[in-house]
Specification:
CATH topology of the largest domain: FAD/NAD(P)-binding domain
Number of strands: 17
Number of helices: 12
Helix content: 25-40%
CATH superfamily of the largest domain: FAD/NAD(P)-binding domain
Largest sheet: 6 strands, mixed
Radius of gyration: 22 Å
Number of domains: 2
Order of helices and strands: EHEEHHEEHEEHEEEEHHEEHEEHEEHHH
Strand content: 15-25%
CATH architecture of the largest domain: 3-Layer(bba) Sandwich
Amino acid sequence: MTRLHIIGGGLAGSEAAWQAAESGVAVVLHEMRPNMGTPAHQTDALAELVCSNSFRSDDAANNAVGLLHEEMRRAGSLIMRTADAHKLPAGGALAVDRHGFSAAVTRALEDHPQVSIAREEIAALPPAGWGPVIIASGPLTSARLGAAIAEATGADHLAFFDAIAPIVHRESIDFDIAWFQSRYDKQGPGGGVADYINLPLDEAQYKAFVAALLEGEKTDFKEWEKSTPYFEACLPIEVMAARGLDTLRFGPMKPVGLADPRKQARPHAVVQLRQDNALGTLWNMVGFQTKLKHGEQARVFRTIPGLENAQFARLGGLHRNTFINSPRLLDGQLRLKSHPHLRFAGQMTGVEGYVESAAIGLLAGRFAASDIAGRNENPPPPTTALGALLAHITGGADERSFQPMNVNFGLFPPLPAGGKNRGKDRKQLLSARALQDLAGWLESGAQQSAAE
């Protein structure tokens, strides 16, 4: 019996294991934790969320990541099914109770009769004798496996830094200052219109906060890390602040769509916090990923009105992410061209974001299961979010300047000329076309399976 080996029990590896197992394939999922930890993980649970607890927008009609959510749901995604079961109030976003989420994913895979979980480090690339393998070891791949991948690909990894935002105990927030409101009072998946805690700053307070950020002592880089770029969508807040006084006011601290109920006016700037656990006791500082040293974080963030007595369940941190040059190295089914028994999935392929990583895991699991069954499953159409993301990392991107990418409508083929193809209408038309084409792809795959 052919077994599928999957290296890495994060979002991508967990999703790949589920997809293959649901197709009837025997899966061995290799996860090095708890035998070997990483700088960012805190538990040995599968699919642990090490940064934000948000899967971002859940609007399938107007947002590309929301569309990706819906496509994955329709494709039988374990990650999306579990996220929906553990969602928290978060305005228009899909946020989850991180511990409940990862615990449920772990249970689902432990209980699946086709899945075996091996708690061990895979320190070298598996030989062809192992049969099909998916490498989903993520941005925090162990040093030995990372070196083996670099040797096999014939090139060093590209790399960037990713930063983690602090989490605050709700009881330590001053609600004489803070108030609940979602931006533009937008209703989220949980039905609420006041899902975020908001902390207002006037102009003087904002300027003082920016000055404190810039003066705060930062984490020192090792010599080999100094030339590593950040991913633009996840910059440390002090790096953004260094770009100009008003950068944060037009970024994570933008006050638009919010009004301080005590003053009936829009503040100069706002810090938002998003619920991080089902009990509502922990709140994540939105967009406040940081490389400030821990003592400096507590000092600087307590200058924010309403956080003067803040108690932190977790302070921010910084870790190095790695990814391969997928447009050059992978074929259209995520196989390493030089070693076709190996597939890659997740963040290591150069997608950015929880959902995008899981989506590539979903595809890798389906492709591998199809190979084992002796058939060649076609990739999803490039008009779908799944297909557009896959096409980008396996050839659509310029390999000379390849960088991590979130799913976005810019990756989709354009609509036919004519009609209302701009703005919101364009997004809704792209989404409608995607779901229609996805249905055809899923039906084709189901028919192929039934014919065997």
